[in-house]
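To assess whether the prediction recovers the assembly geometry, we first specified each molecular entity separately, as shown.
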Amino acid sequence: MTGSTPAAVVILAAGEGTRMKSATPKVLHRIGGRSLLGHAIAAARATGPLHLAVVVRHERDLVAAHVADVDPGALIADQDEIKGTGRAAECALEHLPRDLTGTVLVTYGDVPLLTGDTLRGLLDSHRESRSAITVMTAEAPDPTGYGRILRDDSGAVVGIVEHKDADERQRAIREINSGIYAFDAATLRDALARVGTDNAQGEKYLTDVLGVARADGRRVSAYPCDDVWQTEGVNDRVQLATLGRILNERQTQRWMRAGVTIVDPATTWIDVDVTIGMDTTLLPATQVLGATTIGRDAVIGPEVTIRDSEIGDGAQVRRAEVHLARVGAGASVGPYSYLRPGTDLGAGGKIGGFVETKNARIGEGAKVPHLTYCGDATIGAGANIGAGTIFANYDGVAKHTTVIGAQSFVGSNSVLIAPVTVGAGAYVAAGSALVADVHPGQIAVARAKQRNIDGWVDRARPGTATAEAARAATRHTGDSGDAAREGA
Ligand code: UD1
Ligand code: CA
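The predicted structure of the complete assembly is given in tokenized form:
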């Protein structure tokens, strides 16, 4: 291999993760919209390796299926009953070509903040120092539990001692092993064959490879990483939340630097695969999740959750839940609305307050402003759907479609009983229960005729305040209701 491209990256993910106290394998827990393992794979892929292997054992099938899902090109290497990081690396080598030469990077499946840039820095340093092994190290404020880097008087790295195997003097060392390394492939293979399990945990330690190679006269170096978070692993749910928050801080800062206004970064959550255009504003308590794309000059929030959706330039979304939906340029949504999968709101359109939509194509400039359920519908450009309209799409057995033509007007509190079509430029009278198609230019009046019955209050509710009010009103005006119209 030439340059800084590794021959292989090996991701260790066979451990149990018991401290998570979870039926879900640790590496499948998520932060920033990706599994911990997904983060590790993304960083590994960024280095452009020839091979990528993930070592599995605990909940092997679940983890392997997840790897196949996020990275079908990755190899799955099963670890056997021999324990330890060294054995894990050895099992990975068995799945890689026997004659593999060049650099092998080893990293963990539970270190989600590590970036491809940092791995590339490790590779560059490894190549420039012409080392057989380069270990990434960090200065830990509290090094308890970590392997410590041992150096000789000249400062050269001579090995790593695990916390459990370290003496008092070694435990005072603050420079810790991150568990991320660059190895010369042949050195790694050769040294692993000579590493035993004679230690406090009875495991085959990958860390022992450094001492073996050093004793063979090979050059072993350290690559200090000054960003401690990138070497931090997740062992329990407290660390999961902490790293999730740090990752989110990095995402919000990235977007603010790219020209997005974020009023309250602490309550704004942005997944790693999101993109946001310049001069868009995110208001407090907003979550932008999954593969969501937001255009420029949009205003999102407060209290909005958007997942796997596309929001156009200049759109406004307030206090809403939006999932697998598209909101066109200049359109507005909310407050208090729920856009479900398949909602497609055209440019300049409106989904107002207390509206639920699903599988609904709403044309350019069309409006569904108040208190509506709109499912399985196509609404033409410029149409107006009155307050309280219900698209009755479900007959108890199957879903049916409603089509509303361009520039049509549906009166308030109508029920559109699908399948039904309202042509372009048609009206539906308020309070209609529509069962038959309406043609262009028609008005449909689908409700009972109004009847007014004279003197009913006096006869049926004598002596009530209502009857008194009726009497007083007729005394003043002489209007007994005779002139009341028979409503349409
Ligand atoms: C390991 C290092 C330690 C380092 C620390 C950094 C060894 C012996 N020790 O310790 O020097 O400071 O990481 O976090 O390497 N794994 C397997 N198979 C196994 C055991 C572990 O795949 O048999 C995987 C785990 O899933 C995990 C990683 O290797 O992703 C580290 O394992 P863990 O048990 O957490 O190692 P530590 O004891 O923390
Ligand atoms: Ca660990």
